[in-house]
Amino acid sequence: MRDLLVAHDSAGLTGHHIPSSAQSVRDIALITRVEQILEVGPDSIVLLAEELALGGWVVSVALRYAWERRAVALIVSEQSFSESVIELARRFGVALLTTSDGIDRTALTLARELGALEAGILSRLDALHSRVLRAASIPEVLSEISQELGDAVVQLVVDGIVLESHGTRPAEPVVARLVLSPRDRGHRGQEGQHGQHGQHGQHGPELVAAVAPVQQAFADQALARAGMTVRALLLQQELDDLVGAAPLLSFAALSGLREDGAFDDSRSEQPALRRLPSGTSVAAVVLRVADVDQRSARIAPVVTSRWRETFPRVPLARLQSGWFALVPLAEPAAELDDALQRLADSGLGDLGAAVGVAHDPHGTEQVTSLLRRAGLAARLAEPGGPVLDFRRFGPPLLRRLLPAEDALDLALTTYPALLADPQASEIIATVVSYLDCAGSVTAAAEHLGVHRNTVQLRLRHAATLGVTLSHPERLLSTHLLLSALDLRALPVATRPTAEL
């Protein structure tokens, strides 16, 4: 409304009350009977004919009707008002103005200026559309929309996961949405600064903009202009992923992947492409979803986007129950494990995806065997939990057989002093790592990221608490029991009381 008043020659208008908050204007309504206000739409400026608004009581009634219809302003011929009428306008939040130019002339002028402003908006939208069409990536598109919306935040969201984002969130925003389905549908909703978007991920990728309330209508149109381009860029990314993964697709067929996600290389007609080039050090990675009923298709944009960020040069191939890739081991295995864990922690666990990996550091493994091991690791891995390396199969398998609650009860009985120690979590993690590394203090220290002297001190302390590592016949049970413990769920450690 302020833009409209500035555009209009406002010398003839006198504002008796103008709300401080920004308000949008959609229509100009000239009223000759008070009850006609009941027919106006929201966000309208209502003008009362000169022969109608001849008293404060008529203006008061018109203000109430305008408030009920969510009109933004009431304009009447020039006259004086009592403070009670102006106070009523304040209470209703409806702007109250008078004009000295005549109601009919003011109505025509405002209608002309509103049309000009709307034409300017259409011109801005056309210019935005042209810039969006030239954008080569989704971040560029979001940047263009955000700039047009005053640097408001604009995001591409899939299943509640933000794939791309640009801009900053304004105070007390409303949210404009565009679902990027085969038939785009815009959905608008309001939320406070701390509100939640709600569960919209099941509708597929969405463009979401959080803007000031006055920008909501423009934001809806801006998202609509960009929707087709964003959808085309998403499809282009999927096509690029498919082309990049084409060399791997034969491996999926050769591995004999069944619908339950297991790998079977028992078929005799698979002699070709059983191996990568001789001596190639690789790791097979499998991302598996427990519920394959449309979930893998629905979260595919999230998975491929996160994978591309983590491994931009490694293609990802689709399987019946998820995805797989063969990652060259150009970097140390520990760095690959860290990268995979960051991938798993980037929201994939919340979507039901688990990650398993199997290493072939010497490049001598059959591809089908390597994939089978990674697939089995992914089946035992927990969505949202740590990446499971096939080399550390024992503890995850034990957790399936021995729930954490039972493991805790058994540990409290077997190692009460250990569980009562304030450093129980560190000691248990050190013992497990030491046994994982086949009794190598140096390897355990590297795995834990501490000095080897620290590992030795913790192991000696563990021995004083009843964890004996000098008897080979006890190592397996000790290893499996401590590995099954959930260190985050250990009771608050207290010194044990003396037995009576």
TrEMBL record:
Alphabetized Gene3D superfamilies for the sequence: PucR C-terminal helix-turn-helix domain
Renumbered residue ranges of the record's region Disordered: 184-204
InterPro entries: CdaR-like_regulators, PucR_C-HTH_dom, PucR_C-HTH_sf
PucR C-terminal helix-turn-helix domain boundaries: 428-483
Pfam families to which the protein is assigned, alphabetical: HTH_30
Protein name per UniProt: Helix-turn-helix domain-containing protein
Natural source organism: Herbiconiux daphne
Source lineage: Bacteria, Bacillati, Actinomycetota, Actinomycetes, Micrococcales
